[in-house]
Design a protein that fits this description.
The protein has 380 residues and is an alpha+beta fold. The protein contains 18 helices and 8 strands.
Length: 380
Amino acid sequence: MRVFVKKELLTWARERAGLSTATLAKRLPGFDAWEQGARQPTLKQLEAVARATHTPVGYLFLAEPPVEHVPIPDFRTVADAGVRRPSPDLLDTIYSCQERQAWYREFARAEGLSTLSFVASVDVNEDIVRAATAMRTALGFDISARRAMRTWEEALRRFVDQAEALGVLVMASGVVGSNTHRVLDPNEFRGFALVDDVAPLVFVNAADSKSAQMFTMAHELAHLWLGQSALSDVGPVSAPVHAVERWCNQVAAEFLVPLKSLRAEYRRTAALSDECRRLARVFKVSTLVVIRRLHDLGKLSRDSMWAAYTAEIERLNELVRPSGGDFYLTQPARVSKRFARAVIGHTLEGHTLYRDAFRMLGVSRVETFQELGRNLGVVA
């Protein structure tokens, strides 16, 4: 039995998913005829269209294509113009994080957990150095502690652990849920922050380069201190036009590499590439952040900064990235270790349905759930 669907809805769903007609027709023979209005699909075929385009099937029965909006303030820019159409990958990621945050908020209140005083503790008029210092002190992420670490990748892991210990749900993933076929696009967004006084959440797009993730993390944490939820696409050398984004970028840079410390460490006679790598080892940050801070210090013009940044990006992109990974290590990072421990414990106590826990944790089998719990120290 065939169902009536407007061809405009099929075009909207296809374009929303970033697919061409030819690509979708290869996966779903007959799609081109359905989109042209020459034929109508069966209900089963329409459901296949919904799955292929990650579209709620009910949307395809609407009278006209819906206008979807990002459910949090959107500070992304492309050529100084706001990004208008969010992808289904982005929307699904935000919605799943909002669901986890709502669950943890209720859990925290039931457990009598205190509100977190650092959330919304400053405003955009706060001095950049004071705000960055307050963040660094609260997180225990000072330079002396970082010097003891071997690499900045190790420092990033410690950074995440310290943020979670402070009460922040840190979720870093490069895919939608656990679906490795739905890779998040760093060109669409790098991260977002969801403000809450008991369940603050930071999401970092792990499909982005490791070298960019620490800055994104610091930037989104600055949003929590400011008390402003936001979706961001800024990087270390971005010059945001929005006052909130500009403030958060400046705080993130000062948090990671204080100018006072950089001034004392900088060796002006050294070659730029060598000095960037040395300073990256000193501060345990990526060379990209160092390049930005040398510009802030007045040692690089904006043109020189961009040239050095572009060259460094090319160098980093040539490095071989490790592939794959241990599910029981990557999944807690995707959903937040703090969140995963709480959900698993609450489920084992009988307060949360296994069905809901599986959905929020991205698992499908009891054995996987139990093993995840063992790896997190929740299950003996």
